Amino acid sequence: MNDSKSTLPPSWQGVVASDDEIDLMELVAALWRGKWWILATATLGAVIAVGVALWLPNVYRAEALLAPSSEQQGGGLSALAGQFGGIASLAGINLGSEKADKTAIAVEIAKSRQFVSQFVRRHQLEVPLIAAIKADKKTGELIINGDIYDSQHNRWLRPATLNKTSAPTDQELVKAFNAIASISLDKKSGLATVSVEYYSPQMAKQWVDWLVSDLNATMKARDQAETARNIAYLKAQLEKTAVADMQTVFYKLIEEQTKTQMLAEVNPEYVFKTLDPAVVPEEKAKPKRALIAVLGTVLGGMAGVLIVLVRYALRRRESNTTSLAASKDA
Predict the structure, then answer these.
(1) CA-CA distance, 314 to 311, in Å (whole number)?
(2) What are the residue ranges spanned by the domains of the chain?
(3) Can you say whether residue 124 is alpha, beta or left, with left for phi > 0 and alpha for psi between -120 and 50 degrees?
(4) Cα–Cα distance, 32 to 179 (Å, whole number)
(5) Is-above-0.70 flag for pTM?
(6) 139 in Cβ contact with 200 (< 8 Å)
(7) What are the helix (H) ranges across 138-278?
(8) What radius of gyration do the chain's Cα atoms show?
(9) Residue 197 is inside which H or E element, if any?
(10) Considering the chain, what percentage of its residues have pLDDT values greater than 70?
(11) Residue 210 near residue 218, CB atoms below 8 Å
């Protein structure tokens, strides 16, 4: 295939060739000529970034480190399944062989919609979650958005829609709470971390303490209810059998279930023990104002470079078009 440039008049080929080639020195010279554009956009970006950084409220992070409690293993009917499972199966009783990891279950419960919504309602966190916009730096009191909530009359001012009422729904509360709170489990060490980020450092610490306490209480109540059902079931089965070996199994299981119930009753840290309790944070976690300012300056400078390059490209195309027209007339 013939080169398309060879079909052009000699006077045009130089123009087309110069249009396809980009001289690096020309680009550097163009950037130098447009240095004031770059400086202006970088300065503007820095000013905007600093303004945004100063406008953003301080957010503080409180966290607690937890370890699995010794009572988290061995609860339920599975505690003696390995020892008496064979004998119990003769009576048609399936005790199960797998131990549930109560730590993992507790972490998932802490993330569940039911637990979070009940936690928020129980501690009356609706207004701090939905209507608060920041905390006063001197007094620490929350500043409430007056367009959302009327603090004097204790009523919500949001307009009601077809699917939402003026007061926040459970789904809204769960979404808002999950955005500031988290619980994570290290599978290798078995340690869990509970953290809350909020405008008020005191409230962030308080919410972490409430989370740990409520989670232990919830797991304790679940296991107490389960052991009560197990004991009732075992007593019913004990009355139905006359086999001495089976009666021994049932008595032993009832004893273990009663022990589990007693341990749950007296131990407030049923699933998690606090290794490092939450403290009131003294330093903010975010925003990273210096980082925001640097990023704003860099993005502003990049925008200036882009403007200079676009102007250079447009001028070069206009110059080449003029040269091509002049060559054609010649």
Answers:
(1) 5
(2) 4-55+288-329, 60-215
(3) left
(4) 46
(5) yes
(6) no
(7) 170-178, 201-240, 244-266
(8) 35
(9) strand 192-198
(10) 81
(11) no
